[in-house]
Amino acid sequence: MPLSHDYTDRLSPMLKDIVRHFGTPFHIYDEKGIKHTGAQLIKALGQIEGFREYFAVKALPNPAILSIMGRMGFGFDCSSIPELVLSRNTGARGEDLMFTSNNTSQEEFLAAEQNGGCILNLDDITLIDSVPTMPELICFRYNPGPRRTGNEIIGNPVEAKYGVSYEQLTDAYKKAKKRGAKRFGMHTMLASNERNYSYMVETTRMILDMVAQVSAELDIRFEFVNIGGGLGIPYKPEDNALDLVAMGSEITELFTSFKQNNGYAPRLYLESGRYMTGPHGALVVSAINRKDIYRSYIGVDACMSSLMRPGIYGAYHHITVHGKENAPANTVVDVVGSLCENNDKFAIQRSLPVIEKGDLLLIHDTGAHGHAMGFNYNAKMRPKELLLRENGKVELIRREETMEDYFRTLLFEPDIFQPTK
Ligand SMILES: *Cc1c(COP(=O)(O)O)cnc(C)c1O
User: What pLDDT sits at residue 337?
Assistant: First the structure.
């Protein structure tokens, strides 16, 4: 169930006009769909007191999108200084921001504590001594190691570079308390693109158990647990969607029984990126070439600089041809970009309708980890981003990169240093 019918029904009648006005290639996002998903998340988990989604900024770091999240009452999960700056520019302050960095630098710590601060989520026990000032509210990222198996994209927790180990966790809170922390949260993130909702339920059970254990040992209370992102979306037509309602009710039950056993319950935080925006974006490209050698290739006017997932993970992105949605998919082609890298393919041996030069192709589900992951290898530029507003207007929310952007960091007159010896 890639791109929703509702979105394609609204987009299709105006697509040719949008292309005439803005030109391809572009990612186009759907405000209505994003808000609908946000409302569904709140509905599923909103029974838990203080539930809040912290949108994972890296999924779609565009101010127009972040403003939509802010207006829904969501916070922001950031992992770099520019992500903090972007989020703060929407008006987010203090506990609206979660800073979940790893291998954190002093510069990042300083940026995190400035401008009203944020919730600091520490990734290692040694950082307790290196953080410039210990904030009142502190969170640690927990890595259960062999106590839990990860899923496919994020891998085995034993091999994951993130977080504090089971053996270190209690000590970490004890040390933080000694350095002045008075309020506590606990974070974990173990899955990526996981459509089996039970995985998130088990993660919640695990973190609540750890909260109970650490609370008892140190006589502290936890204000929140953050179960990270990783909710999956169906990229393939035959994929089942994650059962958000069942996930919500089972997680809610866990909080209810925690409260019965402990007399209080922490708040629940979530950091969804993909689930919030992934299905609400499409990369629209034009077919510009066709080539038949051992295989047939459809060349389009974008390449992996616009969307890395197929190239780096072999990820599937559904493709439809505008105006030929119901035509028989009776030709097998690779859909390719122009980069000098053979994995620069949006689809490999895909059955599609006969594609002619000038046809518009929609590459589905590019609303998360799409544009944001793009790079400039081979001097390929990243495309523009558009936003289809609820009122039907289309806004350009990021222009395409130009050659001037690409040259901007080059020093045609080098800055010379002559070592003395
Ligand atoms: C990437 C990331 C997320 C978002 O992951 P999704 O799979 O997009 O939901 C959330 N939290 C952290 C710490 C991340 O690194």
Answer: 98
This model's pTM is above 0.70: yes
User: What pLDDT does residue 150 have?
Assistant: 58
Which pLDDT score is estimated for 278? Answer: 98
All residue ranges of the chain with pLDDT < 50 are none
Ligand 1 mean position, distance from CA 77 (Å): 8
- How far does the centroid of ligand 1 lie from the alpha carbon of residue 356, in Å? 38
278 pocket-lining for ligand 1 (C-beta < 6 Å): no
Residue boundaries of the structural domains of the chain:
93-272, 278-401
Q: What is the pLDDT of residues 46-57, one digit of tens each?
A: 999 999 999 999
Q: Write down the pLDDT at residue 151.
A: 61
pLDDT at residue 148, as a whole number:
79
Question: In the CATH hierarchy, which fold is given to the domain comprising 93-272?
Answer: TIM Barrel (3.20.20)
**Cα of 242 from ligand 1 centre, angstroms:** 16
Does domain 278-401 sit in CATH 2.40.37.10?
Answer: yes
Looking from the CA of residue 272, the nearest atom of ligand 1 is: 9
Token pair 């799409």 is found at 370
CB of 188 sitting under 6 A from ligand 1: no
